[in-house]
Design brief:
The complex is a heterodimer of chains A (183) and B (119). Chain A has 183 residues and is an all-alpha fold. Chain A is built from eight helices and no strands. Chain B has one domain. Chain B is rod-shaped and about 65 Å long. Classes of the chains: A mainly alpha (183), B mainly alpha (119). Chain A binds chain B through residues 8-9, 11-13, 16-17, 20-21, 24-25, 30, 33-34, 37-38, 41-42, 45-46, 48, 117, 120-121, 124-125, 140, 142-145, 149, 164, 167-168, 171-172, 174-175, 178-179, 182-183, and chain B through 46-47, 50-51, 53-54, 56, 78, 81-82, 84-86, 88-89, 91-98, 101-102, 105-106, 108-109, 112-113, 116.
């Protein structure tokens, strides 16, 4: 399909935040997430000729990233397996600790919340991608990265009132988009 | 009960009508009546609402906004969605890549990309 060309020059600008958010909600460690995203970009570069254009660039990169995340969990799991062999269940501190107490607490909802957060984060980035580039950039800097109005104005060379007009349009579009897909 | 609903609907319609009217008036002159009724035009109300999402609106602006919201269903709706958006984004705990890290990655990647293109 001709509409899905590959253009690696823009990968980092376009996809690094999305991929990073995708990773961090799944591995929960900033450094690991950064490494995984980095690996993904380089792996993508290496296997660029395998890209058939059947999906969008981002979908393709996410599929590489998913494998990287799985590999990461495999690796730490195999480490854990080795540790378990040496584990002594009757250490002094654990005296009287029953296995039942180690089972997940059914009232602990954090796992579920986290999953929902992961999906919500993906949805927000998806909506952001639908905005015009400048709106997306300004909205991201202001709302997600939390920069001051002044800093953004200086960096992008726009006036404050200009910024607020962009923000207003972006917020309206984002609310509409999330309403369709999330709220 | 039904009468009450109808009344509500009618007043909502009236409000909508009023806002469009207000918008029209805004360009010509801020007549005393419109100023008195809503304290600020809808466009300004939305602007203050946007600012208050980032804690950048002054107290006086917020007071004026709230009075405007009492009278204007259109802006009330916008404010509702806008606050919801802020809350949703906050709840999502959304992350982004560290800026310095991103720049370092970009440099390294560009280098690799050039090598890749030569080969």
């Amino acid at each position: 399909m001709p509409d899905h060309n590959i253009n690696a020059n823009k990968w980092i600008d376009l996809y690094s935040d999305y991929l990073f958010n995708y990773t961090i909600t799944r591995v929960n460690d900033r450094e690991v997430a950064q490494d995984l995203v980095q690996d993904t970009f380089f792996a993508g570069l290496k296997s660029m000729k395998n890209f058939k254009g059947e999906s969008s660039e981002r979908t393709w990169l996410v599929s590489i990233l998913k494998r990287k995340i799985i590999d990461y969990y495999r690796k730490i799991n195999s480490n854990k397996g080795q540790a378990e062999v040496r584990m002594n269940f009757n250490t002094e501190d654990d005296e009287g600790d029953w296995l039942e107490e180690r089972v997940a607490d059914p009232f602990d909802k954090t796992a579920e919340d986290k999953l929902e957060n992961a999906e919500l984060g993906d949805a927000i980035y998806n909506c952001l991608e639908k905005l015009p580039k400048k709106q997306a950039l300004v909205f991201k800097m202001k709302t997600i990265e939390g920069y001051d109005t002044e800093v953004i104005c200086n960096e992008l060379n726009i006036t404050a009132s200009n910024l607020w007009v962009i923000i207003h349009r972006a917020r309206t579009a984002m609310a509409d988009c999330l309403k369709e897909n999330w709220f | 009960m039904i009468d009450k609903k109808r009344d509500n609907k009618q007043s909502a319609l009236k409000n909508d009508h009023m806002t469009t009217l207000e918008d029209n008036l805004e360009n010509e002159t801020n007549t005393l009546a419109s100023k008195h009724k809503l304290l600020m035009p809808c466009r300004e109300a939305n602007h203050v609402c946007d600012k208050s999402q980032y804690q950048e609106a002054t107290v006086w602006e917020k007071v004026k906004l709230n009075i405007h919201l009492l009278l204007c269903s259109f802006c009330r709706n916008y404010t509702k969605n806008n606050t919801k958006l802020t809350r949703t984004i906050k709840a999502s705990n959304i992350s982004y890549m560290d800026k310095t890290c991103k720049e370092a990655l970009k440099k390294e990647f560009d280098k690799a990309l050039k090598e890749h293109q030569i080969n």
